[in-house]
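Researcher: We're teaching a course module on how sequence relates to structure. For the next exercise, students receive a sequence and then see the predicted structure as tokens, so they can try to spot secondary structure elements on their own. Here is the exercise chain.
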Amino acid sequence: MTQTPQRPLRVLAAMSGGVDSAVAAARAAEAGHDVTGVHLALSANPQSFRTGARGCCTIEDSRDARRAADVIGIPFYVWDLAERFREDVVEDFIAEYEAGRTPNPCLRCNEKIKFAALLDKAIALGFDAVCTGHYATVVTGPDGTRELHRASDMAKDQSYVLGVLDERQLAHAMFPLGDTLTTKDEIRAEAERRDLAVAKKPDSHDICFIADGDTQGFLAARLGSAEGDIVDESGAKVGTHEGAHGFTIGQRKGLRIGHPAPDGKPRYVLDISPVDNTVTVGPVAALDVTALTAIRPRWCGGTAPVGPGAYTAQLRAHGDETAVTAELIDGTLHVSFAEAVRGVAPGQAIVLYDGTRVVGSATIATTVRRAGALAG
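Model: And here is the predicted structure for the students to work with:
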């Protein structure tokens, strides 16, 4: 397969106000495409979102994006998608935590906002593609079918958060940064050569819609406090908490358990039960997961695989690959790990790979621990 042919296209460049999306837009314009920049206003009250160039939803970010578009020499607009973002990303995030699951809002934003709401509007206006600053690569086969592959530089690869893209969305996606073996410092140097003021702007690593980075405080303000029990694997009470939504599977810190475990070793969150508001803790070995089921599969640029297959899987945005066997049975993905993995929680995404190709993504529903207990 080959890199997507670079015939001139009408391109809508999503410009977050950061260095990656600015350089991506500049490269698309330099390649001869007819590029228009757009910044997505994702908050009805931008002052309530992160400030100091830490997120992608602030007034500063929209100004940075506009200045970059002016330097590149492309038209620029701000589109208000705040209501759609609130419904599809923020409210989904809160509901998932309330249900005892651990969501990834970046995947949801890519699926529902950047490559659904934004793409639909772009196509309606006559654009051929949406361009973003993600590090991933789209390749096209002789028959015109497209595949999503990892970025050339694995250290920056972001294909995990794009694994939710379906065939139609992938057909209109452009990632100008994905096929170049450049470090982030080199991207910043390129931005500086292009006179883009965002060259030295810090990256954002936090959830953009949580202003102070305090996820537990954000959830508590919306879901309230509800005292419940912290129990060990036998069901014995070892402490209390103020809301099960404040915990994630694999969490070690902040448990506030008054006395140590019998073996003197740290305890970790093993399970979260919103039904009875109970958090179960235990030894780290009890986090070992050997298999899982995942729902709502989305096949990236292709059809669902038939029968069991050998793949690698990624379970977190910056996680390592692990060997798995996976099979789709009655719409549910059943995955077995070659070696036990830890830190797997319902609500997270599992993304399957065949070499560098992204096969698809699904939402983890249940996990099977080494001892045979079913979680989630």
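Model: If you want an answer key for the exercise: Residues 105-124 form the longest helix (20 residues). The helical segments are 19-30, 59-72, 82-98, 105-124, 167-171, 184-193, 215-223.
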